């Protein structure tokens, strides 16, 4: 461990644990036998989705709020896409501190509503987190409020580090932690205490390809993220300065994963662990799936950081996951436009034991001849092999069949 002076110390994390004890859920951590069998690593999951606001962000927010005297301030203002907002709102209300939350335009409705229901005033401003931050700073100056940064604050970082403290109390022999990175607050706190308790533990950060800002800051790469992600909680273009200094010293590697892998991990956690997580909460498993050779044989700890996913996104992720696995397939079938053709198609579906979800005839568009018709058929099957059996059965009946590609 380095002797270089860093923004936080292990003692800060230990102090944070004592400060927030009793007001924060000490969430369970369990070994996932099924995920361990699938990945080849011993997988341990920390269920921060079971905090009151369904995210770990409460820890850092409360640790910061406890440093303030409600009698000496007008209130607090924070900028957040959701989870920091709800953590600040919940604990500020509990402590009797007025809270204003600035959220970027386009923040999912469920997060806006949840924040308002916790008692905070919500202001929607800015197309990005950076623009929303400036709006929050302007409000802080105009109304004489204390600004609570979501990640680049030593007290916030220390509060988030209590996640790793609990993980290593429950499973002291973890040799690897895989941690999501947005602005860097969580991994900074976790790395600080984890490296103190076990200097040999690997700290692996993960970012989405859409927002690889910390990876770029660390190694000078120019990955050019798309800025479109299902993982809104880590959608940060400008990581913290303090967090960068900790990450540079204590984090062993930062991995980048594609959006499709995050979607797949999200669905896998739902199907195997029976829990709902948001994109940022699934990204650690996404990294394990993307780079299995880095983790095979290791005892790996992963944080399910939050469960506040928009219901529409969740529904889409589930359906797209079924399509990727072959359980949903969209087939385009060309046939003669004559009586009995549709019956032959449905008979083939019944023959192989698949299920019709949607059916559409296309006579005016797409047909190669006036005597031909084209049908789009969405079917449910057990898996890709089962779907392919249907395609084979249709082709044996003389139909020309093509399947739509999946993401």
UniProtKB/TrEMBL annotation:
Keyword tRNA-binding included in the entry's annotation: no
MF term (GO), any: pyridoxal phosphate binding
Annotated catalysed reactions: L-serine = pyruvate + NH4(+)
GO biological process, one term: L-serine catabolic process
Residues of the ACT domain: 330-407
Keywords noted in UniProt: Lyase, Pyridoxal phosphate
UniProt keyword Lyase present: yes
CDD domains in alphabetical order: ACT_ThrD-II-like, Thr-dehyd
Pfam families listed in its UniProt record: ACT, PALP
Cofactor: pyridoxal 5'-phosphate
Annotated transmembrane regions: none
Family: Belongs to the serine/threonine dehydratase family.
Protein name: Threonine ammonia-lyase
Organism classification: Bacteria, Pseudomonadati, Pseudomonadota, Alphaproteobacteria, Kordiimonadales
